[in-house]
Design brief:
With about 90 residues, the chain is mostly helical. Helices cover about 75% and strands about 0% of the residues. The chain contains 5 helices and no strands. The longest helix has 22 residues.
């Protein structure tokens, strides 16, 4: 996924860190880089909006207990696999 324009932070780097960014699990400098990229790149911004919506739906659908770490890691891994597959299919 890319808008075709060069960016200081490449799209694949942004997408790889997107969930960490949305969960506020990146340092301030990384957060600023990702935010700047999202402001410049419509496809990545759209992906971020979709990921925010998924996070919101999951949060509403789940009870207040956090998922076990193994489950969380499997879900994140599967989302990454689907994203990679989708990216290759859309190129």
């Amino acid at each position: 996924m890319s808008c075709g324009r060069p960016h200081e932070t490449p799209c694949d780097e942004v997408l790889a860190r997107l969930y960490d960014f949305l969960d506020s699990e990146v340092d301030t400098a990384t957060s600023e880089q990702i935010q700047q990229h999202l402001e410049e790149c419509a496809p990545c911004l759209a992906q971020a909006a979709l990921d925010r919506m998924v996070k919101s739906l999951v949060a509403r659908s789940c009870c207040s207990e956090p998922a076990p770490e193994q489950v969380r890691l499997r879900v994140v891994q599967r989302i990454s696999e689907v994203r990679i597959t989708y990216r290759y299919q859309s190129d």
